[in-house]
Every structure is written in structure tokens, then in C-alpha cells.
Amino acid sequence: xxxxxxxxxxxxxxxxxxxxxxxxxxxxxxxxxxxxxxxxxxxxxxxxxxxxxxxxxxxxxxxxxxxxxxxxxxxxxxxxxxxxxxxxxxxxxxxxxxxxxxxxxxxxxxxxxxxxxxxxxxxxxxxxxxxxxxxxx
Length: 137
Description:
The protein has about 140 residues and is α/β, with parallel strands linked by helices. Helix content is about 35%, strand content about 20%.
């Protein structure tokens, strides 16, 4: 695999300086992993922006249809979409003012990874943001 992820310490530093997480694919269903992970991050003090065209509100936050609909700066874009969709999300990510592209545990797409790394972005794949946050506290 040619995807290199930051060290746990580097991920901790990213999380320590970050405040806003846009969650692509955030479900309004409390039983879904995207909801549980995002709720934990919200409870830890992060502003969570749901990115899902099929819902109006999640976790008390107004949802947006696309990353481009977000007003203001995003520190982390956390992606809960199947691996085959990561490249399309990466292309949209590159069009907004965000710092870190983070694909959840089990999600890897080398094309998306190389596309973003060539543009100088920090890319994390196949790691759970909630777990990394807990391990770096």
C-alpha cells in the first residue's frame, strides 16, 4: 500500500489544534457509526457540520448538501463514504478552505490520497477519528 498516514503523535497534534469537523456522509440515525463518532467528537468540543444532501439536521446542526456549501473555515473533513467515493470527495475537498482530509477506519483510496498529497494536503485514511482522539488525550 502506498498510502502513508501521519503518526499517532501527528494525528494528536492535528486534533489538538482543530475546532471544526465537516462530516461527509453523516447519518441522522443514532445507530450508525457516522452518528456515534460525530456525537463523540461534538461532545469533546468540536463543531460538527453534517454534509449530507438527504437530511436537514443532525446532532442539532443544520446539514449542508456539499462541502462547497459550508461557510467559513473547516479544519478536518471526516469522510464516511465507501472507498470508491473518496476520490470524488477529495476533488470537492480541494475546492474548499480545509486543512485535513480524514477517511474513516476501513476506507482507503490511493487515487484520492495521491491527488491530495500532490496538492500538499494532510491526508489520513483507514483511521477512526474518535479512536485517535481518545488515544491522544
